[in-house]
Specification:
- With about 90 residues, this protein is an all-alpha fold.
- The chain has a domain of about 50 residues.
- About 60% of the residues lie in helices and about 0% in strands.
- It contains 5 helices and no strands.
- Helix 2 packs parallel to helix 4 and helix 3 runs antiparallel to helix 4.
- The longest helix is centred in the C-terminal third of the chain and has 16 residues.
């Protein structure tokens, strides 16, 4: 099985301005999900929302599904939180 592709690193200040604002926000949100341990207090809600949103997107637009999968990958990459109990309950 091949390794999953890595999400892009947050852009540096020099090339941030060349990205659309929505893309800068998406990259910042994924970086926060990947590195911020403070999200552990919201983890139960985040996992539930991602689960419900992915279910809805399976019958809708695929672009949104790609963003949600990026968010799931970022949460799973966060070594400062323990997400397994929340994932196993869905």
């Amino acid at each position: 099985m091949s390794a999953a592709p890595q999400l892009p690193a947050p852009p540096t200040d020099q090339n941030t301005q060349s990205l659309p604002e929505t893309e800068r926000h998406r990259i910042a949100a994924l970086a926060s999900l990947r590195e911020d341990t403070a999200i552990s207090g919201l983890l139960v809600y985040l996992v539930k929302w991602l689960n419900e949103s992915i279910g809805k997107c399976l019958t809708g637009a695929l672009g949104t599904l790609g963003c949600l999968i990026d968010a799931v990958e970022a949460v799973l990459d966060n070594t400062g939180i323990f997400v397994e109990p929340y994932v196993s309950s869905i």
